[in-house]
């Protein structure tokens, strides 16, 4: 039978079908691009808030320098403390890969010192010469920090999605970028300022610090390893020798978490570099990035989760739970939280990326796990989930209450009930302190 007579209908139909498929792919790509742009906008907004509040903080400190009237000084100290607290919280909401722990600590120190000075002179007694000297030191240091934040904002935020790429690829894969170098320089500056002026930032209010918290992270304790030991740790982590003559470089010298970056250059068909980051203190491998395996299809999201979980089990994380996962651009992105006594440690999440085509892990980032302040509290709540619901206003529906350990806004880790909450057409993730029922954080999930 001759089918050529149907060609007049078949060819246009195929063309329409091809156009529809292309349009669908274009729409999906557009949606993904819009989503990534929204994430990048969120991160840059957070950074702008850090920079803005740092600027307002140093302005208030400078204003306090120009008068001897204690009431006026206290007003400016209150303003400086408020903006320091806001800057500290915002800096704790940046991507893990670019969070600056020395910077957050600096903001907390300024807040605490300003608050202490206000308390000491609540009766309008004059500041001592030593206290005025401390005030001038804080103002000078705040100016230097604010200038570096502005420099990063002016020259570092170039290209497509500079902050989102830190989340997607991690600091190892982009460590040589100008943005990464500027963050490293800022960390070194802040660390140096706090070390030089210990009498202002450490000794002056050491008695006011909570001895239960501010404990050192895993990444800041332990014996310091050599560069050759770092190569050995990295080689073991990736399962054996990769290519010849791996290159190692030290980064973050003077910061709270200095590390080595080991670069392997595999031989053969797969010659793209492989990066492994190792903390100098303790020798923990906290990040791995493998180039050349992105794209492709053939691996479901469920299979990707299994591959990622098996990878973590092989590398010392036997007990984890999935927090979230997604797939786009040929890669499956997963986030896991370690479990302790059955409770997810949401402040120490681990990221694992799996290439859909190659079915192998291309990126691993456990920096949050090793850099987080460890939780030393109880896993037994004082209130029930039903009690915690009382924190919500009328008309809010809640679901999926779960005990987690979280560190809202970069604060000390706490045991909390995490709720999925709905009010009207908006959805939220809400953390409520499991000991006293206080709302710790509210994250709006919708843009309505």
Automatic annotation (TrEMBL):
Q: Which domain of life is it from?
A: Bacteria
Chain ranges passing through the membrane: 6-26
Going by the UniProt record, its keywords in alphabetical order are:
Membrane, Transmembrane, Transmembrane helix
Question: Taking every annotated instance into account, which residue ranges of this chain make up the domain Sporulation protein YpeB N-terminal?
Answer: 36-155
Q: Where is the Sporulation protein YpeB PepSY1 and PepSY2 domain?
A: 217-372
Q: Which BP terms from GO are recorded?
A: spore germination
**What is this protein called in UniProt?**
PepSY domain-containing protein
Q: Which organism is it from?
A: Ferroacidibacillus organovorans
């Amino acid at each position: 039978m001759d089918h050529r007579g149907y060609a007049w209908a078949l060819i246009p139909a195929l063309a329409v079908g091809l156009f529809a498929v292309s349009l669908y792919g274009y729409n999906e790509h557009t949606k993904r691009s819009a989503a990534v742009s929204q994430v990048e906008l969120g991160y840059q907004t957070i950074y702008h808030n850090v920079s803005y509040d740092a600027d307002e903080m140093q302005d208030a400190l400078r204003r306090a320098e120009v008068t001897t009237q204690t009431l006026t000084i206290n007003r400016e100290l209150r303003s400086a403390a408020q903006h320091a607290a806001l800057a500290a919280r915002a800096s704790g909401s940046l991507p893990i890969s670019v969070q600056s722990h020395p910077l957050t600590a600096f903001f907390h120190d300024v807040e605490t010192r300003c608050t202490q000075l206000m308390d000491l002179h609540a009766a309008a007694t004059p500041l001592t010469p030593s206290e005025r000297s401390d005030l001038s030191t804080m103002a000078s240091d705040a100016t230097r920090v604010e200038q570096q934040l502005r420099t990063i904002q002016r020259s570092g935020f170039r290209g497509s999605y500079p902050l989102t790429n830190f989340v997607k690829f991690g600091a190892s894969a982009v460590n040589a970028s100008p943005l990464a170098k500027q963050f490293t320089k800022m960390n070194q500056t802040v660390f140096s300022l706090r070390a030089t002026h210990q009498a202002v930032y450490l000794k002056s209010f050491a008695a006011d610090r909570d001895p239960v918290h501010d404990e050192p992270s895993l990444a800041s304790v332990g014996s310091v390893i050599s560069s050759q030991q770092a190569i050995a740790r990295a080689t073991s982590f990736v399962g054996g020798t990769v290519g010849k003559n791996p290159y190692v470089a030290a980064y973050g010298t003077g910061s709270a978490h200095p590390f080595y970056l080991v670069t392997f250059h595999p031989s053969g068909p797969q010659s793209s570099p492989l990066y492994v980051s190792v903390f100098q203190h303790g020798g923990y491998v906290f990040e791995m990035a493998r180039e050349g395996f992105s794209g492709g299809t053939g691996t479901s999201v469920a299979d990707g989760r299994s591959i990622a979980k098996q990878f973590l089990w092989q590398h010392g994380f036997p007990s984890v739970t999935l927090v979230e996962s997604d797939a786009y651009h040929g890669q499956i992105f997963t986030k896991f939280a370690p479990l302790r006594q059955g409770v997810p440690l949401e402040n120490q999440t681990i990221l694992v990326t799996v290439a859909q085509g190659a079915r192998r892990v291309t990126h691993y980032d456990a920096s949050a796990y090793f850099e987080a302040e460890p939780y030393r509290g109880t896993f037994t709540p004082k209130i029930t989930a039903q009690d915690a619901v009382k924190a919500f206003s009328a008309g809010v529906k809640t679901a999926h209450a779960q005990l987690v350990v979280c560190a809202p806004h970069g604060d000390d880790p706490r045991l909390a009930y995490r709720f999925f909450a709905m009010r009207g057409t908006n959805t939220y993730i809400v953390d409520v302190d499991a000991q006293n029922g206080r709302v710790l954080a509210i994250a709006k999930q919708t843009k309505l």
